[in-house]
Amino acid sequence: MRISFCIILILLVSQFGLAQDALLPLYEGEPPNALPNDLIETRDTSNTVRIGKVINPSIEVYLPAQTYATGQAVIICPGGGYRILAYTHEGTDVAKMLNGHGIAGIVLKYRLPEDASNKEPHKTPLMDAQQAIRLVRKHAEKWNIDPTQVGILGFSAGGHLAATAATHFDSTSRPSFAALIYPVISMQDSLTHRGSRRNLLGESPSSELIHYYSNELQVSADTPPTFLVHSSDDRAVDVGNSLAMYQALQQQGITSSMHIYPYGGHGYGLAVDKELLSSWPLELVEWIKWLN
């Protein structure tokens, strides 16, 4: 019954839609680490919206009705191998689903690590994720959000970005919790998704960069509570990524929950039509509310 309700809710929201409450640039003026360039943002709408060559990063804010808002918010990082952003499938659809459960959903359109538009390409996605956390907290009162309940969620390479934000932060940018959905976690040869690593770190990254962005090696006692979802038959991003992250979290005593499904492969988003797999969004919602 719970799974059926979730599927009905997602289908209704997808059909009738929810309007965004705000669309804000991440930065006032020139974004940091940017190079002058002549790139033009691309937007492929042939199936779902896929965005490339992001020059002007932003957040798209979806807020639940105040009468049943939990005060919690999730910044959503779409995946796409650090090459494009699967913006609706792993972004706005997820924000709308969260709204249906009283949680604010904020979709992050982050810059991709392209040589033509970044001084140091590998630094830019994390800069944007950290700035999104700060910006949501800045507007928390206006948006009826508890600034101590701002989490981050990511899919695939967006999951790597969310995991990086959860393990590399300062006092202003630590997320309150993290949710990593079929995530790339490691940059090590034995686990990494080669395309994501190449796009983020280049063809021949140094051992120092590989270590820095292998997030299973960066978990500390300050890492926030973390939720993981993966499928054991994922042929794109090895399930070992999530297993390694969960083990690291457990070793540090971090509150964590991992859900490994026997099927699904990769890139299923909300998995609306995937039977058992479609339970993961409700598992996530219940976990987030349990943290509150």
UniProtKB/TrEMBL annotation:
All residue ranges annotated as the BD-FAE-like domain in the record: 60-249
Pfam family, one: BD-FAE
Keywords: Hydrolase
GO MF: hydrolase activity
Gene3D superfamilies for the chain: alpha/beta hydrolase
Record's protein name: Acetyl esterase/lipase
Species of provenance: Marinoscillum furvescens DSM 4134
